[in-house]
Structures are given as structure tokens and as C-alpha cells.
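QA checklist item 7 of 12: single-chain prediction sanity check.
[x] sequence parsed
[x] length recorded as 253
[x] structure emitted
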Amino acid sequence: MRSRLLVRLALFISLLSFAEANIATINEAIDQAGRQRMLSQRMMKDYSMIGMSIKFGNPSKELTSSAKLFDKTLDELIAFSKDKASKEALAKVKKLWTPLKAKLLAPPDKDSAVELFGEVEKLLEVSHKATNAIASNSKESTGEIINISGRQRMLSQRLGSLYMLKVWGVGMDDTKLQETIKEFEKAQTKLLAFPKNSKEIESGLNAVKKDFMFFEVLGASKSKKYIPSLIARSSNKITKKMNDVTKLYIDIK
């Protein structure tokens, strides 16, 4: 009787673990890990918008849902990853994320915004290392390009985050914003040159290029007239389109 119960318990635990690990392939893991980088920047963007009482796009709801998604995906990545490097990298993400989540979900404080940005930068750094650790296990030719494409989602949200901090007037200059614009341009050029691009992927990348022109103009402008709602909209549009493109790269055989 006892042995039968132990067998049932073991089966239950096994099924529970399987249910939590919704990631089935290494390319899906690269995609999900890459999305964590984007979520870190989206949450900082939303935090700043809430601090400025900007209601466009419901940043409060988006911040809460992003935090929940970060939690869920991190647990799934930990359940999926078996190699030592990935496990260690993800453990560092979890260690930073647990206390940072409480700060991001608390009422925004302008005086501590730059310090919080620094903590989010650390989370971005360890999330990027975790993504690279997972990507290093891929033996498929698309592993690297999925990583690059997924990172563009992060850069689009980073542009939004850096712009919001600038508008909020917390004491940050344009340096990181200019660097991010250049990073996005460079990676987009590499994606467009990928030999296995389908017509659908090319169409998606060209659509992103049109939306990104807005940021290029913004980067060159010295105007003091700020347009945070429009920036938030453009940032999210690019993120969505790059997410679609990344999914298409995952499907390449």
C-alpha cells in the first residue's frame, strides 16, 4: 500500500514538473530567455511613466503583467535548463530579481529612479548572460540569429525606458539613448543580411525599419518638446513586430 502511494506521489511530482516546464526546445528557451531582457526594460519604462502620471497604454497594468510574466518564465527556464552554466546564470537572475521586483511594483520615487535604473541594468546584464549560456547549447544554425532578433525586442523597450527617464528629469543624459539607437541599427542590418530570411521575415524587418525611423529622427533632434505617449506607442509596436519575427526564426528548419 505504502509503495503504491509512493509511486503515485512520484508520478504526481513528475507530471507537476512537466506542467511547469512549458519550454520544449532549445530555440524556445533562447526566445524566452531573450524576452526576459525585454521585460526588464519594459518594467523600467512603465515605472517612469507611472511616476509621471502618464496613462497612455495603461503602464500600471503592463508593469504588473510584465512582472508576473518574468516570474513565470524564469521558473520555466530553470526547470528546462540542465547544464551547469545555464543553471548558474539563471540562479543569479533570480537572486537579483526577487528584491528588485518589490521596488519596481512599489509607488515610483523620482529621487531613487537613477539608483533603480542601475539595478535594472544589472538584471539586464545577468539576463543577457543567461540567454547566451542557453544559446551556447544550440547546435542549430538559427540559434544565434534568434538571440539577436530577440534582443531587438529589448532594445526597442530600452529606447522607451531611456526616453521616459529623460522626460522625467532624473538627471540622465542622452549618451545611453544614442548608444541604443546605434546598437539597434547594427543588429537590424545583420538580421536583414541573414541568408535564410523568408519573405515574411523580410517583410517584418522592413516594417520595423519604418517604425524605427521615428527614433532615428528623435536621436538627431535637439528639441525640448517631449512626446512620451508617442514614444511608448512606437516602442511597443517595434517590440511586437520583432517578437513576431523572432517566432518566425524559431520555425526555420
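[x] summary fact logged: The two ends are 49 Å apart (CA to CA).
[ ] second reviewer sign-off
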